UniProtKB/TrEMBL annotation:
Residues 24-311 form the Gcp-like domain. Keywords: Acyltransferase, Cytoplasm, Iron, Metal-binding, Transferase, tRNA processing. This is tRNA N6-adenosine threonylcarbamoyltransferase. The gene is tsaD. It comes from Kineobactrum salinum. Belongs to the KAE1 / TsaD family. The lineage of its organism: Bacteria, Pseudomonadati, Pseudomonadota, Gammaproteobacteria, Cellvibrionales.
Length: 335
């Protein structure tokens, strides 16, 4: 089955071609970061307009790359939610129109299911059942995955998502949007242990998270440094380092707890924050100690992309699912 995947839920236009027999054939991504950077965050209307400009040329590019004609396609998968309503509607309208014109089924996919299944695109991929840590700009969740479509939420952030906390801390430190990679880069030059930030909710039972207190703690540290000596470059690096350490330690503790609670030995990490090197290496070390294994997507498939949507859609289309005639986008959509 040859499936075209289209991702337009936020500020990346992602397109990919996935074949259930041969794997990923081609993919392309256009990031809108340069458009939104001057506003310090995503401007929804600008995002929608740019998806309109980029989606079709990217589809043509991916088909050409793979040497495929539209007539060879068996279906089109697109992100139906959660995300920005206008951005989602651009992808859904285009995908459904093309599917109608080409006489093939379309299917709206859950964005977080795409992230969750992204590690399946790798040659060495996890087997069910596993625990998935989903860490993106909008979500921080621990999910038990027993099969495609069989997901049980074990815990989630009660306030900010981990990526959102990275982005807000980046702003406090004077770094551009999207902040995660910038904070991580600054943290590399930080003095480990100069500041000790709290690990939120680790002393409470359960698998929920909370990152808004950590954000406030970071802001207070910034203010104290500024008042005492003026904020130096080294202060910024040390604060970034302490913040990153606290987020990573918290996520690691909860992942180990989830594996233990569910009696599983496979962990999957996905979503934008899973591109973070410190998180990847510390999770790897911690999980290996207990004889478990951790799987990640390739870095390019950690953040939003079309390949994960093509893969998730292909599995569901293969199982006989497709859009109902009155399908629409779902900006808020629990998984
Ligand atoms: O999954 P994603 O691309 O989009 C959403 O679905 O939200 O995740 C984007 C988030 C942003 O908050 C970004 O700052 C964060 O992932 N991020 C990182 C890193 N790379 C991206 N956070 C920490 N370290 C990174 N290296
Ligand atoms: Zn995402």
């Amino acid at each position: 089955m040859l499936i075209l995947g289209l991702e337009t839920s936020c500020d990346e236009t992602g397109v990919a071609l996935y074949d259930t027999g041969r794997g990923l054939l081609a993919h392309a991504l256009f990031s809108q970061v340069d458009i939104h950077v001057e506003y310090g965050g995503v401007v929804p209307e600008l995002a929608s307009r740019d998806h309109v400009r980029k989606a079709l040329p990217l589809i043509q590019q991916v088909l050409a790359q793979a040497g495929c004609a539209p007539q060879q396609l068996d279906g089109i998968a697109y992100t139906a939610g959660p995300g920005l309503v206008g951005a989602l509607m651009v992808g859904a309208t285009l995908a459904r129109s093309l599917a109608w014109a080409w006489g093939i089924p379309s299917l709206g996919v859950h964005h977080m299911e795409g992230h969750l299944l992204a590690p399946m695109l790798e040659t060495e991929h996890p087997e069910f059942p596993f625990i998935a840590l989903l860490v993106s700009g909008g979500h921080t969740q621990l999910v038990r995955v027993d099969a495609i479509g069989e997901y049980r939420l074990l815990g989630e952030s009660l306030d900010d998502a981990a990526g959102e906390a990275f982005d807000k801390v980046a702003k406090m430190l004077g770094l551009p949007y999207p902040g995660g990679p910038h904070v991580a880069r600054l943290a590399q030059r930080g003095t480990v242990g100069r500041f000790e930030f709290p690990r939120p909710m680790v002393n409470r039972p359960g698998l929920d998270f909370s990152f808004s207190g950590l954000k406030t703690f970071t802001l207070n540290t910034v203010k104290t440094c500024r008042a005492e000596t003026g904020l130096t470059e080294q202060d910024l690096c040390d604060i970034a380092c302490a913040f990153e350490d606290a987020v990573v330690a918290t996520l690691v503790i909860k992942c180990r707890r989830a594996l233990e609670q569910e009696g599983l030995t496979t962990l999957v990490m996905a979503g934008g924050v899973s591109a973070n090197h410190k998180l990847r290496s510390q999770l790897q070390q911690a999980v290996a100690k207990s004889g478990a294994r951790v799987f990640y997507p390739a870095p390019e498939f950690c953040t939003d992309n079309g390949a994960m949507i093509a893969y998730a859609g292909a599995q569901r289309l293969l199982a006989g699912q497709h859009d109902a005639a009155d399908a629409s986008v779902r900006p808020r959509w629990p998984m």
